[in-house]
Amino acid sequence: MKTNISLVYSKQFFELQLVFAQKIADVSHQSLDQVVLRFTALYRILGLDWNLDPTNPIWQILAAKLQCSARNNVLVLRTGQSVETC
């Protein structure tokens, strides 16, 4: 059964995950997408397995949006928004 994550998690929950990840990325000099993968719940919330595989095609879309968000200092995680619009 597929769950609409917007009904389960608030915008503030996602924002907190990303603020936390950005702080770790800044302190550890790691890329934001790698920190989000390793230190937040977002990979699992997307319904992906426990492999935390950075090459997973679904994860790759989110990672590209995170990189774009970091470059433009905006949050780009809305579903259905293509990476190209970033």
Tell me the overall shape.
globular
Helix content: 55-70%
What class, by secondary structure content?
mainly alpha
Mean pLDDT: 76
Rg is: 12 Å
Please give the alpha-carbon distance between the first and last residues.
31 Å
Strand content: under 5%
What string, H for helix and E for strand, traces the elements in order? Answer: HHHHH
Number of helices: 5
Strands, total number: 0
Largest sheet: none
Note poorly predicted spans: 79-84
How are the elements arranged and paired?
Blueprint: H1 5-8, H2 11-28, H3 32-39, H4 42-45, H5 57-72
Q: How would you portray this structure in words?
A:
It is a single chain. The protein has about 90 residues and is an all-alpha fold. It is built from 5 helices and no strands. The protein is globular and about 30 Å long.
Keywords:
disordered C terminus; single chain; mainly alpha; 86 residues
Short description:
With 86 residues, the chain is mostly helical. It has helices at 5-8, 11-28, 32-39, 42-45, 57-72. The longest helix is centred in the first third of the chain and has 18 residues, at 11-28.
